[in-house]
Design a protein that fits this description.
The structure is a homodimer. Chain A contains 3 helices and 7 strands. Chain A is an alpha+beta fold. Chain A has a single domain, classed as Electron Transport, Fmn-binding Protein, Chain A (Pnp Oxidase, Chain A), CATH 2.30.110. In chain A, strands 2-1-5-6-7-4-3 form a 7-stranded antiparallel β-sheet. The radius of gyration of chain A is 15 Å and the shape is globular. Chains A and B meet through strand 1, strand 2, strand 5 and strand 6 of A and strand 1, strand 2, strand 5 and strand 6 of B.
């Protein structure tokens, strides 16, 4: 599905994403990652071939959640939950992470400055369903 | 396992928990909740018999993640991941949520003020493994 503008704004901000993948034994694996938006896909970069990458290659079902700094009328913090289908591509992770660092760390970020890094992996998430608490729910 | 002091401090703070349970089809279900600590268990309250409660009753494997506001030497935000085993008890949710509201909303919070609310459900999470980025990892 297309990403609604309200959700896109949060996905493109410096708010962190809690990315859930599924372990081989069916239990959830979570890490907190930087994300960006590329067209109608959410993207994240990984330099090593870590558990997340291995999990997504085996089972593309992912969920991510992001807190806002806004509260609703009950005083509950608004948050976005995205249920999606992910795929992994090889290469380009360092460039993506350096780009995302400008959002997450600031325009002058010097993230992963070494020039001999491996290409890494990019997770591309197609959005299947949006929920949570906020204008997108 | 016992909860390390560094993790306990975060679990008892106003930082929100992203709680993952497992849907019947094996996909992850996520919501952002208030949590507290009771002895060596993490607790959360739910007034309705929602999806989380139903999922935990079927499969007690849960994971929760919490962001700090601290960054490590690479400029990455520290966060806690708890892998645990959860069980549900009935009743006491409103009292727990009113108590947690003092932490999450402030000492004068007037959360769920009605006096005719159902007892709800409490999730109790026994900690099996702690990871993430921070002094607990």
């Amino acid at each position: 599905m297309e990403i609604p503008d309200s959700a896109r704004e949060l996905l493109e901000s410096a708010a962190l994403a809690h990315l859930v993948t599924i372990n081989p034994d069916g239990s959830p694996q979570v890490s907190v990652v930087w994300v960006g938006v590329d067209g109608d896909e959410i993207v994240a970069g990984h330099v090593p071939h870590n558990r997340k990458v291995q999990n997504i290659r085996r089972d593309g079902r992912v969920t991510l959640s992001i807190e806002t700094r806004r509260q609703n009328e009950m005083g509950l913090t608004e948050y976005l939950v995205v249920k999606g289908t992910a795929r992994i591509t090889e290469g380009g992770a360092v460039e993506l992470l350096r780009e995302l660092a400008k959002t997450y760390q600031g325009p002058d970020a010097d993230f992963l400055p070494a020039d001999n890094l491996p290409g890494g992996y990019i997770t591309h998430i197609r959005v299947d369903k949006i929920s949570g608490v906020g204008p997108w729910a």
